[in-house]
Amino acid sequence: MILDFFMGSATTQAVAHKMKRQYIGIEQMNYINTISVPRLQKVIKGDQSGISKDIEWQGGGSFVYAELAKENQEIVDKIINSNTKEELNEQIDALLSNGVLNYEVDFNEFINTKKEFNELKLEEQKEVLIRVLDSNQLYVNYSDIEDTAYNFTEDEIAFNHSFYGGE
């Protein structure tokens, strides 16, 4: 079993696939759909780069690709992509109503310091808001997969149960 926590352009996965090894690739960057997945699709179709000629690779096989369901990460993405303080203020409402806040944050004190918060530069405001969120809740936990608040489909729930060994 090959485990690669920094999948990048999927070189390790391509070689493992061609050598008929089981593999898991993990990538946190957003280029997985433009670089990593297309590369593995080419490998399956018989791509002749790398070790292909040495092992007489003809293509074949399959792979499973999945993304983690975002929870607080959705709010973090919107905070990062805010270009003005006005846009950022819209995210404050989402954060306060939908976000899972860091247990160390005194919610009342956060509300009471709004004047000081508004005086901060945009990048400083972003940092504060991201730190207010519970970083342990960036993604939905498997144990919450059947929570109706997340609106997962029956297929998504079934896939997760099969992936994690069923229940």
State the helicity in percent bands. Answer: 40-55%
What is the CA–CA distance across the termini? 24 Å
Overall shape: elongated
Structural class: mainly alpha
Averaged pLDDT? 92
Strand order of the largest sheet: 1-2
Q: What's the gyration radius in Å?
A: 21 Å
Q: What order do the SSEs take from the amino end to the carboxyl end, as H and E? A: EHEHHHHHHHH
Got a strand count? 2
Specify the number of helices: 9
Poorly predicted runs are none
User: Largest beta sheet, briefly?
Assistant: 2 strands, parallel
In terms of DSSP E residues, the strand content is under 5%
Structurally, how many domains make up the residues?
Answer: 2
Description:
The chain has 167 residues and is mainly alpha-helical. Helices cover 49% and strands 4% of the residues. It is built from 9 helices and 2 strands; from the N terminus they run E-H-E-H-H-H-H-H-H-H-H. A two-stranded parallel sheet has the order 1-2. Helix 5 packs parallel to helix 8 (122-132). It is elongated, with a radius of gyration of 21 Å. The model has no long low-confidence stretch (mean pLDDT 92).
List the helices and strands and how they pair.
Elements lengths: L1 E3 L6 H8 L4 E3 L6 H13 L7 H4 L16 H10 L3 H14 L8 H6 L1 H6 L2 H11 L21 H10 L4
Parallel strand pairs: 1-2
